[in-house]
């Protein structure tokens, strides 16, 4: 688990194809590796990866074909900047929100514009994730815990303050940039809980929760 508070901006040093997978070597920037052991988890742009080798300036991790196809990691190249965060401990301040490091889908930057000293971004999420995104709720974008300002269908807006722009790769986002999205885990568990006994039955059409379902169970008037 992670908090979504980025600890360092890293740089892709090497990408080595191995048997159809990819081994990444990442320069860690200011990330403190003194408490890292082999097998520990490090989030790279919000994707939980396992450190298989490391030294004081870099670490390596294997990335499966599935992860490459479902996240933006497959679009990286040597020199790409990435957000880095070590897995949380019981002593870690939970300054963001609970983040699993399991990407739910790819979003796309639709627009950006200055708003005083901050920058506002509009991001389009995949349609199947729209129901999990709510105004003033939490969402993880490339591993960064952020608060949703506004939602319109599958599009949501973020207001990024100067400190976050300086400490993450968000400052480099432009229209068309693809970003890893992870919705709030509480929303996912709540959806499953609302299904009650129906959760035990398989469904080929995705979630069984509809407006009719919510009305029948007293959640809508």
TrEMBL record:
Keywords from the named record: Repeat, Riboflavin biosynthesis, Transferase
Residues in Lumazine-binding domain copies: 1-97, 98-194
Pathway membership: Cofactor biosynthesis; riboflavin biosynthesis; riboflavin from 2-hydroxy-3-oxobutyl phosphate and 5-amino-6-(D-ribitylamino)uracil: step 2/2
Catalytic reaction equation(s): 2 6,7-dimethyl-8-(1-D-ribityl)lumazine + H(+) = 5-amino-6-(D-ribitylamino)uracil + riboflavin
One Pfam family of this chain: Lum_binding
Keyword Nucleus: no
Gene3D superfamilies noted in UniProt: 2.40.30.20
Listed EC numbers: 2.5.1.9
GO MF annotations, alphabetized: riboflavin synthase activity
Annotated Lumazine-binding repeat ranges: 1-97, 98-194
Enzyme class: transferase
Function: Catalyzes the dismutation of two molecules of 6,7-dimethyl-8-ribityllumazine, resulting in the formation of riboflavin and 5-amino-6-(D-ribitylamino)uracil.
Quaternary structure annotation from Swiss-Prot or TrEMBL: Homotrimer.
Name of this protein: Riboflavin synthase
